[in-house]
Amino acid sequence: MDNMQIFSRKCSVVDDSGNVADLEINFYAPTYDEESEFYTTYANVECPYFQFNVRGFGTDAAQAFFSMSNAVVSYLIGRRRFGYEVYWLEKGDLDYTDFWTYAR
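RESULT FIELD:
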């Protein structure tokens, strides 16, 4: 993966014992893949408990980036099944805000 990192978001993650750790999401610029004729991008989600890359694809860079962004939120919400609660500014904000703009 040779995309350039464009920004990151620092969050928190709470495990099922109540321990809080830092979680970082690093976002990478979309690039055009001539072979597939699609744009692709990814975000790397890292914390002491898990690490994962979330990919996005699209017919243009915007579609690739925003599809990946939506997949990141779904992935973070899905961590609840394994006993992890992820939040940005306060616990539960994945449920009642837009995670990217914090609009309620």
